[in-house]
Design goal:
single chain; 260 residues; alpha/beta; Rossmann fold; Nucleotidyltransferase, domain 5; 3 domains; six-stranded mixed β-sheet; four-stranded parallel β-sheet; 8 helices; 10 strands
C-alpha cells in the first residue's frame, strides 16, 4: 500500500488526486505518525523530515517501506516510481497508439494503465513526448490500421530521442462496445496495441493509393460543406502529413482567389 506523508498541502492535494484518478489503494498520515501495517511505499516531499521512527508501525515487516521523495513540480513521476515499486520494479513504460480518425493513446507501466487519451493526430507526438519526458527506456507501439496516419505518427516519433518504436498489427484490437457504451473504443484499442508485440521501425514510407487520395478529396469536400474539393497535389501533401485537411482547403481557396 502507498502512504502519502507530507506537510506540503499542494503536493498532498496533487498526489492524492493522482492516486485517486488511477484507482490506487492508499492512505495518508502526518509526517511523524506511525505508518499503518502493510505500507510498502511512502510518498513524501523533498522538505519533509522523515526519521527511522516514522517508518515504525504495528506488525512485523520483512523490510522497511521505500521512501519516494516527490518533486512538487513533477508529481506524476513520483507516482510512477511508487507504482513501479509496488509492482516489484518490473513495469516498463509502454505507450500504445490506435491510429484511427482520432487516435487513442494509452500509457501503460507493466500491464497497468496509468493514463489514456483521445486526441487529434496533430497532438499525438507532443503528447507522447510529454508523457515520456522523465521515463527511462520507453517503448511506443503504433497500430497499423490506418496506413497513412500510422506512417505519419511513426515518422514524427522518429524525431524523439531515446524512444523505441514498434509497428503493430492491430487486427482485432478494437473491441465491440456493449449496449449503452459510447466512445472509448479507440482508447481500448490503444491499450490492446500496447500489450501486443510489434516490429521495430525507424520510419515508414507509404505511397498513397488512388483510393486513399480520393478519400482525402472526399473528406475535403465534406469539410467545406460541398464548397470545394482539393486537387491531387494537395491531397498528397495531406497524405504525407505535411498539411491538414483544413490547411489544404485554405491553400485551395487562396489559389483560386476566393479569400481566407
Amino acid at each position: 500500500m502507498i502512504v502519502v506523508a507530507t506537510e506540503d498541502f499542494e503536493l498532498y492535494h496533487e498526489a492524492v488526486s493522482a492516486l485517486r484518478d488511477r484507482g490506487t489503494t492508499f492512505t495518508t498520515v502526518q509526517p511523524g505518525e506511525p505508518l499503518p501495517e502493510g505500507t510498502t511505499v511512502v510518498l513524501t516531499g523533498p522538505d519533509d523530515d522523515l526519521s527511522p521512527v516514522d517508518l515504525a508501525g504495528p506488525g512485523d515487516r520483512p523490510s522497511p517501506p521505500e521512501i519516494v521523495r516527490v518533486d512538487p513540480g513533477n508529481v506524476r513521476r513520483g507516482i510512477e516510481e511508487a507504482l513501479s515499486i509496488l509492482r516489484g520494479g518490473a513495469g516498463r513504460t509502454v505507450i500504445g497508439i490506435d491510429s484511427g480518425p482520432r487516435p487513442g493513446v494509452a500509457v501503460l507501466s507493466g500491464k497497468t494503465v496509468t493514463a489514456a487519451f483521445s486526441v487529434p493526430i496533430d497532438e499525438v507526438v507532443d503528447l507522447v513526448a510529454d508523457e515520456l519526458s522523465d521515463v527511462a527506456d520507453p517503448l511506443v507501439r503504433v497500430g497499423d490500421g490506418d496506413r497513412l496516419k500510422s506512417a505519419r505518427i511513426v515518422n514524427e516519433l522518429a524525431e524523439l530521442e531515446g524512444v523505441e518504436v514498434e509497428l503493430v498489427d492491430e487486427t482485432g484490437t478494437t473491441p465491440a462496445l456493449g449496449a449503452g457504451a459510447r466512445g472509448g473504443s479507440d482508447v481500448l484499442a490503444a491499450v490492446n496495441i500496447a500489450l501486443r508485440p510489434g516490429e521495430p521501425v525507424s520510419g515508414r514510407e507509404i505511397e498513397p493509393t488512388p483510393g486513399e487520395l480520393e478519400r482525402i478529396k472526399t473528406t475535403s469536400r465534406e469539410r467545406s460543406a460541398g464548397d470545394r474539393t482539393i486537387d491531387e497535389e494537395l491531397a498528397r501533401r495531406v497524405a504525407d502529413g505535411e498539411l491538414t485537411i483544413d490547411e489544404a482547403l485554405q491553400l485551395h481557396r487562396e489559389r483560386d482567389g476566393s479569400g481566407p
